[in-house]
Amino acid sequence: MRASGPPAKTPLPTRQKPQVCWWCLPGTAKAIDDLSWVVHHGYLDMDLVARALRARRRDVHVVLAGRYMPMEWLDMADMATEMRQVTHPYPKKAIAPQAGVDF
Questions:
Q1: What is the tally of structural domains in the chain?
Q2: What mean pLDDT do residues 67-85 have?
Q3: DSSP of 24-83
Q4: Would the N or C end of the chain have less CB density within 10 A of its end CB?
Protein backbone atom coordinates (compact mmCIF):
# COMPACT_ATOMS: atom_id res chain seq x y z
CA MET A 1 0.00 0.00 0.00
CA ARG A 2 2.37 2.68 -1.16
CA ALA A 3 1.23 6.23 -1.81
CA SER A 4 0.46 6.56 -5.49
CA GLY A 5 -1.42 8.77 -7.85
CA PRO A 6 -0.73 12.06 -9.54
CA PRO A 7 2.32 14.00 -8.42
CA ALA A 8 1.72 16.44 -5.59
CA LYS A 9 1.09 20.02 -6.58
CA THR A 10 3.49 22.68 -5.39
CA PRO A 11 1.69 24.74 -2.73
CA LEU A 12 1.30 28.46 -3.22
CA PRO A 13 4.21 30.25 -1.52
CA THR A 14 1.85 32.75 0.13
CA ARG A 15 -0.37 30.07 1.69
CA GLN A 16 0.10 29.74 5.46
CA LYS A 17 0.17 26.04 6.40
CA PRO A 18 -1.98 25.21 9.44
CA GLN A 19 -0.63 23.63 12.62
CA VAL A 20 -1.91 20.28 13.93
CA CYS A 21 -3.31 20.28 17.46
CA TRP A 22 -4.97 16.99 18.53
CA TRP A 23 -5.42 18.15 22.12
CA CYS A 24 -7.37 21.23 20.95
CA LEU A 25 -10.24 19.03 19.77
CA PRO A 26 -12.75 17.73 22.35
CA GLY A 27 -13.07 14.01 23.08
CA THR A 28 -10.72 11.08 22.74
CA ALA A 29 -11.60 9.81 19.26
CA LYS A 30 -10.54 11.74 16.15
CA ALA A 31 -11.69 10.66 12.68
CA ILE A 32 -10.10 12.70 9.92
CA ASP A 33 -11.11 11.99 6.33
CA ASP A 34 -8.79 12.81 3.41
CA LEU A 35 -5.95 14.16 5.57
CA SER A 36 -3.53 12.23 3.36
CA TRP A 37 -4.91 14.01 0.27
CA VAL A 38 -4.30 17.37 1.96
CA VAL A 39 -0.70 16.37 2.70
CA HIS A 40 -0.18 14.84 -0.76
CA HIS A 41 -1.13 18.13 -2.39
CA GLY A 42 1.15 20.17 -0.14
CA TYR A 43 -1.39 21.97 2.04
CA LEU A 44 -0.06 20.38 5.24
CA ASP A 45 3.37 19.03 6.11
CA MET A 46 3.57 15.21 6.44
CA ASP A 47 6.24 15.36 9.17
CA LEU A 48 4.15 17.81 11.19
CA VAL A 49 1.25 15.33 11.19
CA ALA A 50 3.58 12.42 12.05
CA ARG A 51 5.00 14.38 15.02
CA ALA A 52 1.47 15.24 16.20
CA LEU A 53 0.44 11.57 15.93
CA ARG A 54 3.44 10.49 17.99
CA ALA A 55 2.91 13.26 20.59
CA ARG A 56 -0.81 12.69 21.16
CA ARG A 57 -2.08 11.46 24.50
CA ARG A 58 -2.35 7.67 24.66
CA ASP A 59 -6.11 7.90 25.30
CA VAL A 60 -6.63 9.75 21.99
CA HIS A 61 -7.58 7.39 19.17
CA VAL A 62 -7.05 8.64 15.62
CA VAL A 63 -8.67 7.25 12.47
CA LEU A 64 -7.26 8.53 9.18
CA ALA A 65 -8.98 7.81 5.88
CA GLY A 66 -8.12 8.74 2.34
CA ARG A 67 -5.94 8.18 -0.68
CA TYR A 68 -2.16 8.60 -0.90
CA MET A 69 -1.52 7.51 2.72
CA PRO A 70 2.21 7.98 3.45
CA MET A 71 4.09 4.80 4.37
CA GLU A 72 5.40 6.51 7.52
CA TRP A 73 1.83 6.86 8.80
CA LEU A 74 0.98 3.27 7.82
CA ASP A 75 4.06 2.06 9.71
CA MET A 76 2.80 3.87 12.86
CA ALA A 77 -0.71 2.45 12.54
CA ASP A 78 -2.07 -0.29 14.78
CA MET A 79 -4.37 -1.29 11.91
CA ALA A 80 -4.50 -0.36 8.21
CA THR A 81 -7.19 -1.38 5.76
CA GLU A 82 -7.16 -1.04 2.00
CA MET A 83 -10.55 -0.85 0.31
CA ARG A 84 -11.37 -1.40 -3.32
CA GLN A 85 -14.57 -0.89 -5.25
CA VAL A 86 -16.14 -4.13 -6.40
CA THR A 87 -19.34 -2.64 -7.75
CA HIS A 88 -21.00 0.74 -7.58
CA PRO A 89 -24.51 1.78 -8.68
CA TYR A 90 -23.67 5.24 -10.06
CA PRO A 91 -22.25 4.23 -13.46
CA LYS A 92 -24.28 1.02 -13.82
CA LYS A 93 -27.76 2.23 -12.98
CA ALA A 94 -27.34 6.01 -13.18
CA ILE A 95 -28.30 6.35 -9.52
CA ALA A 96 -27.44 9.79 -8.16
CA PRO A 97 -25.65 10.18 -4.79
CA GLN A 98 -28.10 10.35 -1.89
CA ALA A 99 -27.88 12.67 1.12
CA GLY A 100 -27.28 10.71 4.31
CA VAL A 101 -25.97 7.71 2.41
CA ASP A 102 -23.20 8.96 0.13
CA PHE A 103 -22.43 12.32 1.73
A1: 1
A2: 87
A3: GSSSSEEEEETHHHHHHTTSS-HHHHHHHHHHS-TT-EEEEE-SS--HHHHHH-S-----
A4: C
CA proximity to 74, closest of 38, 44, 46, 55: 46
46 C-beta neighbours (distance < 10 Å), count: 18
Q: Does residue 66 form part of some domain?
A: yes
Measured over the CA atoms of residue 82, residue 20, residue 103 and residue 11, the dihedral's sign is negative
Whole-model pTM: value is 0.57
Q: What is the domain range of residue 55?
A: 22-80
**Cβ atoms within 10 A of the Cβ of 29, count?**
10
Q: Does residue 64 fall inside a structural domain? A: yes
Give residue 22's pLDDT band: very low, low, confident or very high (50, 70, 90).
low
Task: Considering only the C-alpha atoms of the chain, give the largest distance between any 2 of them, rounded to a whole number of Å.
Answer: 47
Residues 42, 73: contact at Cβ < 8 Å? no
Q: Is 51 part of a structural domain of the chain?
A: yes
